[in-house]
Structures are given as C-alpha cells and as structure tokens.
Amino acid sequence: MNETINPLLKETGIPLNEYNEIVRLMGREPNRLELYLFKVMWSEHCSYKNSRPLLRILPKEGPAVLQGPGENAGVVDIGEGWAVAFKIESHNHPSAVEPVQGAATGVGGIIRDIVAMGARPIALLNSLRFGKLGDESEGDRTRYLVGGVVGGIAHYGNAIGIPTVGGEVYFHPDYQDNPLVNAMCVGLLRSDELKKSFATLGRPVYYVGSKTGRDGIGGAAFASEELSEESESKRPSVQVGDPFMGKLTMETTLEAIRLDLVEGVQDMGAAGLTSSLCEMAHKSGLGLELNLDLVPKRETGMSPLELMLSESQERMVLVPRPGREKELERLAGRWGLDAVPVATMIAEPVFRITSEGAVVAEVPTGALADSLTYVREGKENPEAAAARAKDLTHLPIPQDLQAILPQLLASPNLSSRAPVFERYDHQVGTNTALVPGKGDAAIVRIKGTSRAIAVKVDSNPRYSKLAPRLGAMHALAEACRNVSVVGGKPLAYTDGLNCGNPETPHGYFELSETIHGLAEASKALGIPCVSGNVSLYNEGPSYRIPPTPMVGVVGLLEDVSRRAELGFRKAGEFIVLIGDKAGELGASEYLWLTQGLEAGSPPALDLAREARTQAAIRDLIERGWVRTAHDVAEGGLAVALAEMCFPHGLGATIEIRNQARPDALLYGEAPGRILFTVDQANLQLAVKVLEAHSLPHKILGQVGGESLTVLMPKQRLEWGVESLREAWEGTLREVLP
Amino acid sequence: MKVAVIQFPGSNCDSDAVWALERVGLRAELVWHTQGSLEGFSAALLPGGFSYGDYLRAGALAKFSPVMEAVRGLAERGHPVIGICNGFQALTEAQLLPGALLANNNLHFTCKDVSLRVERRTAFTSEYKAGQVLRVPIAHGEGRYYADDETLQQLEDGGQIVFRYTQQATRHGPHAYNPNGSLNDIAGIVNARGNVLGMMPHPERVVDEVLGGTDGLGFFMSLKRALEVVA
User: Fold this and answer.
1) Residue A596 in contact with residue A469, Cβ under 8 Å?
2) What is the C-alpha R_g of chain B?
3) Which of A265, A737, B196, B214 could be cross-linked to B81 through a Cys-Cys bond (beta carbons 3.0 to 4.6 Å apart)?
4) Within an 8 Å CB–CB cutoff, is residue A158 touching chain B?
5) What DSSP line would sit under B76-132, residue for residue?
6) Using an 8 Å Cβ cutoff, are A49 and A371 in contact?
7) Cβ(A468)–Cβ(A514) under 8 Å?
8) Cβ A214 vs Cβ A302: under 8 Å
9) What SS3 state is found at A446?
10) Which residues of chain B make contact with A423, given a CB cutoff of 8 A?
11) What does the pLDDT look like over A570-596, one tens digit per residue?
12) Does A697 participate in catalysis according to the annotation?
C-alpha cells in the first residue's frame, strides 16, 4: 500500500481490508473524494454489510406483496386496485445529539421514501425509546430528549399534513445515552402506478427540491459509529428539516407521477447525492455522469466532497419521460422549486463526477453499491443468560395487591400516552377511523371504498434483552395481534432493527438472534417482511442498548364498519378472555416495577396457537359480534381491564378462580391473550367460535358500574375507575404539559 | 353555486374541506393562491394548514397573496367566506375578522376533541339549535383568541361570537375545555355583517360516522342552505 494513503485511511476510518478491496475493485488507488464515496456507501446504514447475510433468511414473499425489500419501501396489495407502501427508518444518533431536528428529519426522510414509490403518505407512526424518567439528573436529560423528539415529530408531521396515527414510547435505563427514534410512514397508491428507482440510457436526471448546503455532511457514516463524547461535536452531521419545503417537494413529485411525467423516482436521503444517484444507476444497470456545477447550492465555495456528502433535506431525484422535461420544470416552478438536470444516464457502468470541467471522481457503480459483507462469530452476553435463568418461584407475594394497580398505571411505561399523541395531528386527511388511545392499532380508511388498513408498531425491549430471539418473536406476534384485535388481517411488516455494535460478539449475537426470531415468527404467522432498516452501533464504552426490533405491521379491513375499539361501551356486556388465565412473572413489567428485577425468561410463545387466536378475534369482529377488544400486554390482566374502563368511564366486575399466584393472575404477562366483550345474545355463539379454533377461554364477568372489581379466592379487590384514571393520566403530562 | 377552497402551498386540510363540502352536495374547487379572481364562485373557504410554512406567524404571509384580494372582494360583496384553523388565522391577519390568534397557553400544538357550544344561529349555524353542544376536534399551535377589551365587548354586544368552548359534555362524554386559553372561551366568530366566519376547530373532520362523529355536518349544511337562499 502506498504510504501517502495512510493519513486518508485514518481520516476516513476505513479499515485496511476494505481499502484493499476498494483498490482491487477500482484497479487503482482511489483519490480522497472517491474514498469518501466508499465510506458512506459502505457504511452499515447504506450497505447493510453486517446485517445483509442475516437478513436473507427473512421471508419476503406473500400473496399480497407487490414490492419486497430493496426499493425505497415495500408495497402490498389491498384490493380494488389500491396498494400501500410502507417502511420504518431510524434516526437515533441525530436525535441523541439534536433531538428536535433529528426527529423531524427522521420523519421527513421516511416520507420521501414513501413518495419515491409513487404513494401519497396517509399515516405516520413512531417508536421511541428513552432512558430513565426520574427526578435525578439523568431524568432531566430524558425530559429534554422526550420534549425535543416529540416536538420534532410534531413540527414536521403536523406541518406537512400527514396524520401521526400511532406509535409507542418506552423508558428503560439502557437507553439513557442512546435514545431510539424510529419513524414509519404508510402511503397509498394505485397498484399499477408503482414507481421505482430507475432510468433508461441517455435520460437526464433531475434534481428537484431544496438547495444543497453544508448540513448533515456524512450523516450516514455518523449513524454507523458508536456515540461518544465527540458526538456532541458532530452536530453539523445533523440535518435541518423544513416541512414546508418537504410539502412542496412531495406535492411536486406526486403530481409529476400523476401526470405521468416521470419514468423513475428516487429520494435523496442518507448519503445524499452519492447514494441516490449511485443506487439509481446501479438498479438501472447503467452508469451516470454528474455535473456538480449544475447542483443548486445554498452556499458558495462548496467543495465536490461537501456536495457529495451533504444530507440537506427535501431533495428528490426525478427522471422525466422523453419529451416531458419542460412540463416537469414548469410543474416544479409552480411549487416554487428548483428542477435541474444535473446528471445523465450513460452506458458505461461508472459513477463519474465532474466539476469545473474536470473529472473529480470515477468509480464503478457496482463497486459502490455492493460492499463487502461480514459474517461474524456471535456470543451471548453471560449476564443476560444468568438473568434469564434466575429462579422466580420463591419471590414473596406482596401483601397489598390493591395498591399495585395504580402504581403500575402511573409507571412511565404503562401510563397514558395522550400527552404524546395530543401533540400530533392525528386526523388531518379525514381518514383516521381509529385514533390513538382508542384501539390497539390505528385504522386509516381508504376513501371511496369500504376498506381500511390497520397499523401498529411494537417491540418489547425487556423481552429482547433477556432473550433476543424470543423477544423478536414476541414483537412480531404482538404487533400482528394488535392489528387483529381491531379487526385487521396482517398482510406484511417492516422491521426497524436497532442493536449494538455488530463488531463485538455480544452485539452480533443479539443482531443474529433477533433476525432469526423474526424469521421464525414470520414463517409461522405467514407474514412476510417487505422493508426495513438497520441501526447498529447503538453502543458506547459503558452500555449497549437491548436489541430492539421495532416491528411495523400493516393489516387490511375489508369493511371498516366492522372494527373493534378497546373501551368498554355498554353495561351488561360479557367480558371474555382468550388465552391462559394466569400470566408469568419472568421479564414482566410488574417484576421490574415492584421488585426492581429484570430477570426470568419471557413467556414461551406458541405461534400456532397465536395464529388461531388472531384468526378467532378477527372472525368475531367480522361477524359483527365484537366491538370491544384489547390485547393483554405489559401489566397483565388488571392493567388491560383498567385500560378498557378509561375511554367511556365504564367499570367492570370479574371473577378469577385459579390456584396460581395472585400477583401472576393479576399482573403477570403471557402472549396470545385477548379480552373482548359480547352481548348476551351472541355470547354462546362467540364461545363456539373459540371452541372451533381450539382456544382456551373463560367468561370472566360483566361490564358496568363505576369501579373495577376483581373477585379472587380469599380476596376482593376494588378500584374506582376515576381514581385509577388519575394515576394513569398524570405521569407523562408532567413531562409534556 | 360553487365554493372556492383556497389552496396555499402549505395548506393541508384543503382536500378535506372539498370532501366535506361535497358530502352535503355542494360543488367545491381548489383555487391556487396566485389566482387573482374568484369569478364564478359564490363562497370561499380558507382551509387549515401552514399557508406558506408559517415560520413567521401563522397566516402572516397569506394576506399578501393575490387570492386574498379576491377573497376580500367576495366578502365585500356579501358572499360567505369561511376560515377554518389556519384560514381563521389568515382572515384575522388580513383584517377581515377582528382580533388575533396567539400561541396556545401550553405553547404546544394540541390535537384533541373539544366541546363546542353553538352560541347563536347564523348563516353558518342555521342547522343547529342555539345552545347545542358539539364535539369537534382542534389541531393547532396558535389558537388562543385575543382581542382588546373594546373589540371583545363589540363582539359580545353584536352577537358575533358563534362558537364557544364549553365545559358541558356531549353525548360522547366530557371533552377538553378551552384548550388554548382563548379570551371569553371564543372558538369562532363572524364579522359585523355576518358573512365572514373564522373558527379554530375543524368541522370538516366530523362529517362521517366512520371517523367517529357527524357533529360537523350541520355546519356545511347550513352553508348549503345559505347559498341556496342567495341563489
């Protein structure tokens, strides 16, 4: 190796083995700009070099799938000529450094991915993870991050006019230094109008949208490093979002597609011009010549390197159909945007960049697009294995079981999410048929049809921390269950895989186990993965986040009028539980909150029974017998019942006769449990359906009154609904007034 | 008998407004902000959104757009002009309505259901009973109605306050009360002539049972009736 290259290797952080491969692929040593192109394109964020071999095992085919992973988003058919495009994406590191802009641009970025498929965004969701929410100094930082991230999401989503219909927020000390911000977007398109990142030979490639500035330089590479003290100095790596410009860009692109002006579309996201143009050329089997002099610039004196690495937001790449160039330019002008042909598709498969008349970089497109991949040796963290193996049978049973319910309801992870979702416009577009807080998943109807989609994003970090493979299986099963519980048939999912450093044995083990767990659940439930994102390196010298697979499931309701909400609505209705009567204590929220223990194994998951459970509840909802249903999740039966009391202030009385520990009966967790209500006329019919699906079930009691009453062997517990509500509503309101 | 729904580049409730108008059988068309004439239209609706990004102040730039002169002309000729949310902000900025909409008391964008009392029957509320309480959602960051004492008194005396936030429950239960800190609980007003209305809540979001409510239908039906009378 040439000695003079050494400082460049240090500067770019490219390892020697990759450098040697780059030299081999290019047939010569790269110059500085070329080497940086490789740095961003071969970052984990763009290349999936550590995750790609593992991700291959995920099922990606299904009857509804129109587009699987590999494009800007996955697409599934929902009937009557309609399809939905969806994807989840992380913006963790930018949000840790600058929460408002980090979160806002995360939303903007995922919107552009959906628009690039030719879909009009109709729903946003997000999945957020923060550290401790206490009074001490760590709590202060958490409050700052929560306020900033929620504010950033609201700032972008509200202004661009796409409803934020769902999401989840979870607090755990392991996210103290490394919060997670994943945003998901769903868009609607005619199934025959699907667009791809594609261009034909000789076509001009148009740059449309915001001008390029010095913001977000090298953001993709930043996302693929561990956070450190120096991260604060990487604030310039954080992009700045402008939802108004985002709206103009979105409308221009969608109108260009509607008028059939373009043959190919690609968003300019991570790694900006570099990634978008390289991907387009590579997917088209062609090369591309880019003239940097033509790129619209916000600042003067930007170097070729800065232009290529900038992650300025609100930019798209559009390739007009022959003869429609002027129309595209006029359309962009109407929305007040630049639309400039900056590049040309060429036959030679190279990415050639010119500036001031000289070629400043020339790299084979295949070399940039296909990085080396790594298959590593993983090893489980012995601490996780030891915690999982802990014997919980001799834990004391608390004296006062009554006091625990309000305590659970007031805990950061179980308290009301209204202070968060009230910041988001969740109704713009007049399609949100089930708003946040009303059901286990959001429902967005498709105007002009009786159809609707149900959407949910879910993940349980405690399960995943203690048992990564089982935790991932639970994540997919629960997200599908939530979609089923509102009446939607799950069609496909997108996965946001947030893990630690894959270059460490523990980090790689957790990544690998997570993907294997998803694959297993995916096969058993028959739900393919159509898109996703990896965010690795969520690790620092003193911490590693729990593996956090954020699974976003989209389901279909053929008749939106047949759906279920979670609130009790009618006194006298019977309450039926599908699934086991007792929950388990292992890995439960109850154990963590009352004993400070994060131990035991998450409950075992019978995927075949899970599939039958979900089919049964959908069946009951479709028949019109069930209009109230709720998944029993963290906090167990008692918390689920309390949540069902809140929407309409209606109580219930139930009876549990079982020999299990009373705390496990009330607060233990188990998968595949659903509570629903049914009136007397349909009770026996509903029971027959459950029997036909061979599901354990029990009629627990009836809706009514102003309190929640639980009759158990040797004790009677009673809570006023309003007093429980008070406990439940305050915790996050204090953080987000 | 056509309603113009004014489309600023940052409008985002424009299609929702068209959809709600069409649901009661009115014809509605989007009109781009650079258009200087509203000939052929019997009414105008300024929808919610972020007109020009609204980084300065909600609706502050909208008043300079060519279409606003046409809206002003329509209002001066006595035609109905409606501003919902951002549209209300733009109408106050353009001084077609008195007062101003300031940042919510909690300083944050807020989206939730509120109880809204119909104070009196006007051209925009003829399908409701005076005193009727509706459930309508709000979604805004700058919705705190403010005016000086004299203006407030004029609004009260002139019966120009059409909608107020109230603590009364609807048939759906209790909802948020005055979520932004508006003076005199004001949620919607008309001008002295009674043909220009501005309101912060979104009636177009509650015109379909699938979306959980139809309390906003009466608003659009009232407009339809008013236009039929004019025609």
Assistant:
1) no
2) 16
3) B196
4) yes
5) HTT--EEEETHHHHHHHHTTSSSSEEEPPTTSS-EEEEEEEEE-S--TTTTTS-TT-
6) yes
7) yes
8) yes
9) coil
10) 108-111
11) 999 999 999 998 899 999 999 999 999
12) no
